[in-house]
Amino acid sequence: MSTGPGADSAPAPKNPADSASVPGPVPDRAVATGDVPQGRTKGGTFRSLKVRNYRLFATGAMISNTGTWMSRIAQDWLVLSLTGSSTAVGITTALQFLPMLLFGLYGGVIADRCPRRRLLLITQTALGLCGLALAALTLSGHVQVWHVYLIAFLLGMVTVVDNPTRQVFVNEMVGPKDLRNAVSLNSANFQSARLVGPAVAGVLITAVGSGWAFLINGLSFGAPIIGLLMMRTSELHTVKRAPRGKGQLREGLRYVAGNPDLIWPIVLVGFIGTFGFNFPIWLSAFADDVFHAGPGTYGLLNTLIAIGSVTGALLAARRVVARRRLLVGAALMFGVLEMVAAVTPYFWLFAALMVPIGIFSLTFNVTANSSVQLATDPAMRGRVMSLFMMVFVGGTPIGGPLVGWLTDTCGARIGFAAGGLVSAAAAAGVGLILVRAGGLRMKLDLRRGHPRVVFVPRAPEDRKQLAATA
After folding, report:
1. For residue 289, what is the DSSP state?
2. For 26-236+248-438, CATH number?
3. Which of 46, 139, 216, 270 has a Cα at 20 to 30 A from 329?
4. Is-contact 242 379, C-beta < 8 A?
5. If DSSP codes are grouped into helix, strand and coil, which group holds residue 425?
6. Is residue 404 a contact partner of residue 86, using CB atoms and an 8 Å limit?
7. Residue 468 CB coordination number (10 Å)
8. Worst-scoring range by mean pLDDT, 34-48, 66-80, 189-203?
9. Residue 58 — pLDDT band, cuts 50, 70, 90?
């Protein structure tokens, strides 16, 4: 990953309407110290669901997300059954995310230029057709591993446009005031489906095979399509779109590079997305090779991660201000817990650790996602979020095969521990960079009855400036 700007880089200007109605980015040092209160806005955790268009969006997403999780579990197990190789599972995952690495920024340009509701109707239809194609091949008994590879790549191509469009369309439905809450609820929605999807997939695979899981997934995309068609377009918030022009990719990259509120969360997301989020490889290997169990156990482990993920997402939905300390701390704990899980000898303890791993992974992900969106000018949001998603999932074509090879060669425990080590080291490194860039020093604070680490300005005059801006 590239390094970002120093502390003196000036943040890019924000849309006045955004800054007036959103608890937007707090000045760098105030965020770093953690002294900014985390208040709650009127309406509570589920306030975005009061918006009719968002309710339709969330309902359709819940159904299609459940199908997606069923398909993911079935796909991983199908590839493992066809090849007996964790590397093949890693290649499948890599092919699905390779288009994001290659073309992700172009998807952001399209999302900034075109009507987002119309784009989503096209992409959701295409995703459903891919699911039905894989179902037909599997149920007919003709499926081969190269079929799975090809469909995974096609899914990735559609996702290049679908991902940034879905991210920025949320702002059109709820407006900037509730954007952070809606982003958190989207993650809770996705992870809630993870509670049901893997469990159902495990039962279906055992009872009737993977093909029925793929069929249900393909049909489930009808729900978001219906929701999009039922939306009241008059109630969507007007969002400035980027005009057509040359150099828009470079403009987006320069915008991110010149804003420290964007570059460092994206750098950290890139490392953890590439090396820390390879659960299909690790959990299938642990279920098969370490604990000598079947697809039901694999589904159970994914469900336990989902329980933690839903908890982390709902806790994030209650927050109004996202702190850098929370971002770095959640990433650090995520990496440490992965290393602990990798060496535990007992299945019950390994399974129990999936819950806090899920909590910290979603706390990190939601904090990074919402912070980046709120720090971005609306006209640039598609390109910035495409870069965010590109480094988050686009690194999988590098990390997936590498982690799969390491898991096959050295064992599941070594592979899992290596991913946790890279995640923890990246969190520690970015945390230290943020401290130095902000001219801060670490201090042990005992005022609240328990020790905690805080960051304070080095010089007395900086302390006065911080008090004035916090």
Report:
1. I
2. 1.20.1250.20
3. 46
4. yes
5. helix
6. yes
7. 9
8. 34-48
9. very high
**Residue of 426, 123, 380 whose CA lies nearest to 257:** 380
Write the burial class of residue 9 (CB in 10 Å: 0-12 exposed, 13-18 middle, 19+ buried): middle
Instruction: Kindly report, residue by residue over 374-394, the tens digit of the pLDDT.
Output: 777 777 777 787 788 778 776
Q: How confident is the model at residue 27 (pLDDT cuts 50, 70, 90)?
A: very low
d(CA 440, CA 180): 27
Q: Which residues pair with 131 in a beta bridge?
A: none
Beta-carbon contacts of residue 325 (< 8 Å; ≥ 6 apart): 32, 34, 454, 455
Is the pLDDT confidence value at 315 over 90?
no
CA–CA distance, 24 with 324 (Å, rounded to integer): 14
Which tokens go with 313?
A: 């997402």
pLDDT higher at 436 or 74: 74
Per-residue pLDDT tens for 107-145?
888 888 888 899 999 999 999 999 999 999 999 988 999
Contact, 297 vs 44, CB < 8 A?
A: no
Q: Are 386 and 339 in contact (CB under 8 A)?
A: no
Three-state DSSP class for residue 453:
strand
Which pair of tokens denotes residue 255?
Answer: 């915008």
| Domain regions of the chain by residue span | 26-236+248-438
HSE-CB for 167 with a 13 A CA cutoff = 32
How many residues are listed for the chain in this entry?
470
